[in-house]
Amino acid sequence: MKSRDRIAAAAWMVVRDPHTAEDIFQNVAFKAIGKKVSFPAEGAVLSWAFITARREGIDWLRRHRKGPAILDSATLELLEQGWMSETAHHGDARIEALRQCLTTMPEKSRRLLRLRYFDGHNCQDVAEKLGAGLSAIYKRLSRLHQGLKECVELRLNEVES
Q1: Whole-number Å distance between alpha carbons of 2 and 49
Q2: Which domain holds residue 144?
Q3: I need a labelling partner for 102 at 20 to 30 A (CA). Which of 55, 63, 125, 156 fits?
Q4: Nearest to 134 by CA among 109, 146, 117, 116
Q5: pLDDT, tens digit, 9 for 90 and up, residues 27-46
Q6: 3-state DSSP call for residue 39?
Q7: Each residue of 54-67: b (16+ CB within 10 Å) or e?
Q8: Closest of 91, 4, 2, 1 to residue 53, by C-alpha
Q9: What is the rounded distance in angstroms from the CA atom of residue 85 to the CA atom of residue 46?
Q10: pLDDT tens-digit map of 103-145
């Protein structure tokens, strides 16, 4: 909610109507609450929210207006890049904490994460590469996610203290 005005502004930049922008913000907030996905960092949530607000604004224009959008897509892309770079520095401490947490993990765990997220393999491919069952890979990833979350939060709390 602390980024409410910025997200509503992202919608307003497309639709140029404050009431419609507010409706779009509320739709984005509703979608965020209803998503069964957690975001790894605040920056990821904001990125998703800005993109979603912009897309909903474009969809609204298509449904309600016959003319082109006031801002072309290149301008919207530039605005989006500015918003993303502004929010990026907020995640720097979290990213550094994550890097530190990853260095303390066993190599076997880092390999699993590398295969899944950095090399882009789906869980079935990872299971085959590691000679493990698919459910075992899901369980390992779940435990690793939870462990990394706790480690990052602990490190961030140490920095704040």
Answers
A1: 13
A2: 104-160
A3: 125
A4: 116
A5: 888 787 776 556 676 677 77
A6: coil
A7: bebbbebbeeeeee
A8: 4
A9: 11
A10: 999 999 989 988 887 777 788 889 999 999 988 998 898 888 8
Q: Looking at the 3D structure of the chain, how many domains does it have?
A: 2
10 near 48, Cβ under 8 Å? no
Pair (41, 115) in one structural domain: no
Q: pLDDT tens digit string along 39-74? A: 676 677 778 888 888 888 888 887 876 544 445 566
Are residues 14 and 43 part of one domain? yes
Among all chains, which residue has been given the structure tokens 């790894």? 40
Tokens encoding 159: 């920095």
In a domain, 70, yes or no: yes
**How far apart are alpha carbons 49 and 29 in whole angstroms?**
8
Give the CA angle between residues 28, 32, 37 to the nearest 5°.
145
Residues 6+ apart with CB under 8 A from 48: 32, 39
Amino acid at 131: G
Residue 86 sits in the same domain as residue 115: no
Tell which of 90, 120, 143 closes a domain.
90
